[in-house]
Amino acid sequence: MQTETALKELVKEKYGQIAEQSAEQNATSCCGATSSCCGDEVYNIMADDYTKLDGYHAGADLGLGCGLPTEFAKIKEGDTVIDLGSGAGNDAFIARRIVGEKGKVLGIDFTEKMIAKARDNAAKVGFNNVEFRLGDIDDMPVTSNYADVVVSNCVLNLVPNKYKVISEIFRVLKPGAHFSISDIVLEGHLPEKWKNIAELYAGCVSGAIQKQVYLEIIEQAGFVNTTIQKEKEIIVPDDILANYLSAEEIAEYKPGAAKIVSVTVFAQKPAKDDRNCCSPGSGCC
């Protein structure tokens, strides 16, 4: 079992490598959003098509998501939005198109190369109200009660401590504010072997948790009005499975009840929080 620090370093290394690839390399990667073939990369088999959304910037689209959270996030003009695990800036730029000149978008990512790529993309489009900040999303460099909306796309499953990151989202949202997050969860139990494969962790599969547990963590953090806005099953192609499992293990897994699922989840921070969360000794943050 790898430590939390080791898992974070694994993810940082993998996504640092992705950040150095050209847009053309990512666009033509097998199993990417625009590809018709399939290869050995897990991280890009889940991506949705962003190209028709207002604010789309091709250089920021690395094909790393598993949903379209900004489409469901109920963002309004003038809002302050935080994008967790902002990568090259794809969701941040879509959100910027909605919030307009009066709003603000803050992207947070712990991979230095992704932050550099996102800042370069922002400079190219001339946005002065989109900021990209280096930091862990389970310990955000953001003041409390800051954001109107939090979005994230296929990132929370990569964070070892899910309780901590959900509590951080609660902290940085204003009272009455909300999040819309696309993520990978499980229904049923995947082969235990998957959880010990580094590439599958960086690819969002073995770091995922049970769907019901995911929703319970959100509730325990204090959120209300939790809603699943979109849901789709992710099918991992046989040639990718063959890189990690034997033919016998694949045959055993495929007929089973275990599923990898992409969900987009909405939840709201109460307008009034009687718990005094995050106050000294509160024990709820």
Secondary structure: number of strands: 7
Measured by DSSP, the beta-strand proportion falls in 15-25%
- Identify the overall geometry: globular
Helix percentage range? 25-40%
Description of the structure:
The structure is a single chain. This protein has helices at residues 4-19, 23-27, 69-72, 90-99, 112-125, 162-172, 198-202, 211-220, 238-241, 247-253, and strands at residues 80-84, 104-109, 130-134, 147-153, 173-187, 224-234, 259-268. With 285 residues, the protein is of the alpha/beta class. The chain has one domain: Vaccinia Virus protein VP39 (Rossmann fold, 3-Layer(aba) Sandwich).
Describe how the helices and strands are arranged:
Elements: H1 4-19, H2 23-27, H3 69-72, E1 80-84, H4 90-99, E2 104-109, H5 112-125, E3 130-134, E4 147-153, H6 162-172, E5 173-187, H7 198-202, H8 211-220, E6 224-234, H9 238-241, H10 247-253, E7 259-268
Parallel strand pairs: 1-2, 1-4, 2-3, 4-5
Antiparallel strand pairs: 5-7, 6-7
Helix pairs in contact: 1-5
Short description:
The protein has helices spanning 4-19, 23-27, 69-72, 90-99, 112-125, 162-172, 198-202, 211-220, 238-241, 247-253, and strands spanning 80-84, 104-109, 130-134, 147-153, 173-187, 224-234, 259-268.
